[in-house]
Amino acid sequence: GAVVSQHPSRVICKSGTSVKIECRSLDFQATTMFWYRQFPKKSLMLMATSNEGSKATYEQGVEKDKFLINHASLTLSTLTVTSAHPEDSSFYICSARDRDRGTEAFFGQGTRLTVV
Amino acid sequence: GDSVTQMEGPVTLSEEAFLTINCTYTATGYPSLFWYVQYPGEGLQLLLKATKADDKGSNKGFEATYRKETTSFHLEKGSVQVSDSAVYFCALTQANQAGTALIFGKGTTLSVSS
Description:
By secondary structure, chain A is mostly beta strands. Chain A has strands spanning 4-7, 10-13, 19-25, 32-38, 44-51, 57-58, 67-73, 76-81, 90-97, 105-107, 111-115. By secondary structure, chain B is mostly beta strands. Chain B has strands at 3-6, 11-14, 19-21, 23-26, 31-38, 44-50, 56-59, 62-65, 75-77, 86-94, 103-104, 108-113. Chain B has no helices and 12 strands. At the A-B interface, strand 5, strand 9 and strand 10 of A face strand 5, strand 6, strand 10 and strand 11 of B.
């Protein structure tokens, strides 16, 4: 199957700093990638849809100035958490769909962000 | 809008017990349905899928049948193993819309003891 690589897998940062998370599709072109946040009680919240070469579409309640998304190429999308605070600590997961492989979505390994 | 409802957990079973995790959905048209599994500290892996009514997805002993009349996609396994302990997510997406994200249920934690 298609592979989505997410990096880093874990990161600890200080309050007020910014953290960048990368999501790469290794063997397919992903015109659209998705960013999710997973809360402690397991539920996955869609944060934004990232389209190559255009602005991301954010879900209601997600601050676009705080969670900057860039999708500069068909294989890379980045999520930058700006001015991080402890409440931003979470598990972030990216996903991509390959238009040639039907409806299945492929997921990265996730990034555990801890803000101290 | 579209939504997925799955049974709340945790589900605790002994090894070799029968497993059912219920999932129902609300959606327009004919969505594709999925079960994903998440092992501790990892991302999501596709377990099985079904793209049209009456399809049965199966993998690793798990099965689920797309029931349009009851808008359900219940996950079953005849004999669970300790290694099946994980969180299971039911999800849907509208077919052939590559720009559309998956919509997930809240997840069900399965714990299997030997």
